[in-house]
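Inputs:
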Amino acid sequence: MEVNDYNACVHQWADGLFRFARKCTGHEEDARDVVQGSFEILWQKRRDVQPGKAKAFLFQVAYHQAIDVYRKKGRITYKEDPEQPENVRPGNPDLKKVLERALGLLDEQARALVLLKDYEGYNYEEIGRITNLNEAQVKVYLHRARKVLKGYLVSVENII
Amino acid sequence: MITNENYEEYMMLLADGELSQSETEALKAFIKGNKELEQELAYYMAARIVPDNREIYIGKEELLKKATPARIIGLRKNWAYGIAAGIVLLIFLGIFKQQGGGSKSEIVKTGSSGENSKLKIKNSNETTVTKQDDQPTTIFSPKDSFSKIKKPIANPAHDLYKEEANNVTGSEAPKQDSFDRYIARADKSINKDAQPKRFGWRVDKVKKDSISHVAGAKGSHDYNNYNRGWRKEPVLFGQGTRNLEKQKQDTVNEIVSNIFEKINIDSLINSDNGGDRNLFIPDSSTVALKRSLNEEKQESNIEPRQKRNFLARLPIVGKKNVGINLVTDAVGDKVNKVRQIKNNLKNTDVVIKIGNKELLAFNL
């Protein structure tokens, strides 16, 4: 991978990587750190990474960094909880907000699997390579997360 | 086949986009007419997370990288490579400087070979020496080969003294203090207006005569004593002391006359150096030209007997000239090869690499 390929990756995948990292970590600054760290590692490993596999490499690095940040985050208390903005309250009929709250119910691994599936459209095999899981595990964990999300939507619907 | 036990899995597979077209059609056919299943499928399809494209990463420019400029070699880390490159560069510069430096003297022949051609010796001071010559010559520049080479300072008197000593005894040369005494005696004989005589192989005869006829004589210095290390109290034996003194004086006069003759030849050879005693080693053509100049100059004021120089009388002078010619030809060939290599390397990019690391690049 040359400099031009690397810069093309920045322009093409930085936004998606940031969105993925933000949903995984739940914090914007942590997500920015994850993105910067992912691209820094890509630059260091640019001679070993082919341009066609740069996206998977970036999300793999971001996934592991986000997991680490999320686990570290459990020991940190933020003064302002970004996941609890004032305009988002329980019972809000906005489906998007409801799904964000439902996503917060998942563990970090299931959340990452759902995001990789819905945001980036990876299949089970590709998600397995990124998360170091086999295809069957990905399928099981993902379906388990789908049931949680669907159950949350049903519960919110019943409340409304 | 879709049943009541596995339809939920098929719904999640459909939400994940993992079902084929036929499986999708089969699922839709299975749930058709069942509102509960249709509502359940709608929940699974609504539970998919849709990315918000308005959410972007601000500050991509910080992540971009610029094209790497020329690499800077850290000599602190690769000091051995740097030293090696510097040595190579100095060798190249030394060769070029040797080719381009020095005086600009050259010998140029004008006119055709059949006519009265002129040889001109040009130097950096633009002084020109012309000579009429009928022999065909070629244009060359002696500075290319020997302008930088100088022999040690030659003292003709010392050389002559050594040669004479070898002739007398056939042993090693005397010491320096005895040589000084010898020179002092020679100067003394010049002050007495001694008539210079031709020097030859008579020294052996003098030695024999002095030893055979003057045995037992005492009280005076003996010329032959310097071969024995200049004893403080030289011993002469026998009679005929006056004859010995006369023969001794004749021998000294001959040596002195030959000293002056050799100095004269050397000064002519070294005329380009402005009287410098450092010998300029010319090639064969230069020697031939200068000898011809010397001979022409000596024709007007030197007797015919004195035109033969000292080296010409030695039996090994021919071999010496042959050896010098061989050496000068060999060195000249090497210089021409180096010059040819230099011309071939002009305007050539030279890149010094060790492995994939480019250490040095320059244009010749």
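Confidence is low (pLDDT under 50) at residues 78-92 of chain A. Flag for discussion at group meeting.
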